[in-house]
Structures are given as structure tokens and as C-alpha cells.
Amino acid sequence: MIIKPYGYALWENIKGELDRQIKETGHTNVYFPLFIPESLLQKEKDHVEGFAPEVAWVTHGGEEELGERICVRPTSEVLFCEYYSKNIHSYRDLPKLYNQWSNVVRWEKTTRPFLRSLEFLWQEGHTAHATREEAAEETDRMLEVYADVVENYLAIPVVKGRKTESEKFAGAEYTLTIECLMHDGRALQAGTSHLFGDGFAKAFDIQYLDKDGKQQYVHQTSWGITTRLIGALIMVHGDNRGLVIPPRIAPTQVMIVPIAQHKEGVLDKAYDLRDELANIARVDIDASDNMPGWKFNECEMKGYPVRIEIGPRDIEKNQVVLVRRDTNEKQFVAMNELNEKLPQILEDIQQNLFDQALAHRENKTTTVKSLEEMEKALEENPGFMKAMWCGDEACEEKVKEDYQVTTRCIPFEQEKVADTCFCCGKEADQLVYWARAY
């Protein structure tokens, strides 16, 4: 998949904010190799089994067949573990707080642009700690960072929770997740944070000498988000006219469209306006020779939060026409008031997009107490379904097989909506979010 300039600019803005928060929490960026020897990959068997169907293999170097197959990284746990086993010796070496921005390859049977492609961009954090408690705190902390970026920058509300045993990351002790609801009622996993405990440490012999002079295994975490977030952005906020980009993440927050730009003074005034607003927003100008209607349509398709139209009559009246992408509302704004009003309008758009997405999610969240109620919800109002679960994987598998519905998470904020499991009728004390998902 080729990511063209506008899409990549979106990724850069997401990456920029997330990278800032990752560094604020004490992490440093590193870069590890693209290729992993097969023998190294085999060290953690659960991990290998989880990724085996998705691995791309290199078997030749030039014309020569390799003595050992090399895997193109589907994820980098084993590389970090191998490094940590050779570079962690004492409690003074801990914690190791590393993050990597890179690409990975997974040989997916079915691909979808941004959501599930053979190669995609992501960040993967890999940390090592002296105790399980420290590692668990790190796992929680990074999930909160993801939730902050997705909710406050992409304007997408999330449900935070823990994956079930069958849905957790291969080799992890447990997996935490943020789950989002798309406009069509399907769920999307937007980011995950995994506690590995000392499982990988034992497989790779990652030990350190504690303050009492005793050898101890480290406790590890891993966490990541991908370009899938761009897919989420499109499916949560987009409409029939095109993209709708939240201002905080938009590469272009304001597009100025000159009207009758062939007339004297129009383009000059438009460029002056762009320069004046550049201090308060990311502003561009469409000075192409396309007709205004074409330019308006382009603005809508690309989802610029604000369009500013300026023509000869507007210049005479010392005003502009300001159009919001989220509501299509037009208003006349005096030029000398733009500096004051524009920042608030952008914040209003940001908040409105989040509020709309939240209202949509709440409207498409149904409490179900039986399989019959789940069937009805899937037919009449597909979305998140909240239901009590007994914890038996047989029930989870039955729902998956019969309805193509999966557990999304066991939410941190628990409710008791019934006394029994909606699937088998046994006693249940866990509320779970269920949905069909991408």
C-alpha cells in the first residue's frame, strides 16, 4: 500500500504527538533490524505459534540459498529479548524503556487498506523492569497514553479493558486494549499494551543481579499502535462527502479559497491572510486555476476542518466566509476578528466530532442477556453488545462460530447487567463487550 503525501502527513501528526508523550514518560527511541533468524524466533514457542501463519520468509541471498531461513519481522519481541539478555546484568541497568518506530510485514490472507495490509507502519515499545509490579504499572501507563491520543487528538472515544485469554497477545500474561466503534457498527482494536511477566525472560535467559546479590529474571512489557488509526479516523468521522479530520491532527486546519482570483488584489489579500493566520493554525491556500466549486469539493473530500472563502465583495466588506467541515455551517467573520475567533472555532469542531462519535457509540451499544437478544441487536442495531460472561472459552467460541462476534474486552468499568451468562445461563460476574470487528 502506498501512503500518499496527505495520508503520510496525517501519520506524521499522529506519530508526533504520540512520540512526544512516549518520551515524556521516560522512553527513548531505538532501531532494531528488519530480519530475524529462524533459530532466534523459535526461542519463544507460544509467540512463534501465534505469528507462524503471518510470517514472510527470506530463503535466498542473491543467488545462494541461505543455510537458515530469515523472517521479515512481524514484530520485534525476540530481537529486543536477545539484546536485553546480553545488555542487562545488574539492577542498575533497569528499567530499560525502549520504543521503535518502524515497519512490519504480516502475510495476511485478506487485506484492507490501513486496517490490515501486508506491510504497515507502527511503533512498538519494549521495556524491561526489576519487578512485576513495575511492569504492570508500565502496561497501564502506556494504555492511558494511547487512550489520550485517540480520544483527545483523533476525537474517537475508546473503551478501555482487558482481552480475554483466547484474545490476548501470543506469549503475554495479559493484554490491555482500547476498543473503538466504527460508523457501521463494527469494532476496531486501536491499540494494545501487553504484560509479559517473566515468560520471555526465562526463554531468553534475561537475568540481573539484584541489590542483595541474587540473580532475578526481569519482567517485560510490549505495546503498540499502527497506521490502522488512520483507518479508524476515516470510518468514525468520514461522511458521504469525504473525510472529516479533527483539527488537532489535521495536516491542514484551514484552507483559503480565493474567489474570482483573476481580479486585482484578490490573490494578494488571500496570501496576506494566510501569512497572518499562520501563527495560530496550519493554513494553506488553493490558488490553482480550478473553478471555485471544484475547490470546495476538494476541501470537503480532504476533510479540512475550516474553509475560508475570500473574494472581491468580501474584501470590500473586510470579511471572509468561514465554512465548518463538521456541520457545513457558513458564517461571515470580520477579517480583524479571525485571529480571535478561529482558535475557538477549531476547538469547537474538535469537541463536536468527539461528542458526535460518543453519541453514536452510545446509541449503538446494546445490553443483551441472551443469545436471542444478541441476534436481535445484530439485526436491528449492530454495534457494541454488553453481556455477562461465565468465563468459559466454550461460550466465547460458540458465539464466534455461530455469529462471527468476538469478545472485544473485559472493561475496567464493570457493571452487573444480569446474574447469568447470556450464552449458557451459568452464573456470571464479568461484563464483556462483544462485537463484530475489523
Could you describe the 3D structure shown?
This protein is an alpha+beta fold and 438 residues long. Helices cover 35% and strands 28% of the residues. It contains 13 helices and 21 strands. The strands form four sheets. An eleven-stranded mixed beta sheet has the order 1-5-6-12-9-8-7-20-21-19-18, with helices on both faces. Helix 1 packs across helix 5. It is globular. The chain starts with a helix and ends with a strand.
Number of strands: 21
Main sheet?
Answer: 11 strands, mixed
Oligomer: single chain
How big a fraction of the residues is strand?
Answer: 25-35%
Q: Tell me the overall shape.
A: globular
How many H/I helical runs? Answer: 13
CATH superfamily of the largest domain: Bira Bifunctional Protein, Domain 2
What fraction, in percent, of the residue positions are helical?
Answer: 25-40%
Q: Please identify the structural class as seen in this structure.
A: alpha+beta
The gyration radius over C-alpha positions equals 25 Å
Q: Give the rounded overall mean pLDDT.
A: 96
Low-confidence stretches: none
Number of domains: 3
CATH topology-level name of the largest domain: BirA Bifunctional Protein, domain 2
CATH C-level category of the largest domain: Alpha Beta
Strand order of the largest sheet: 1-5-6-12-9-8-7-20-21-19-18
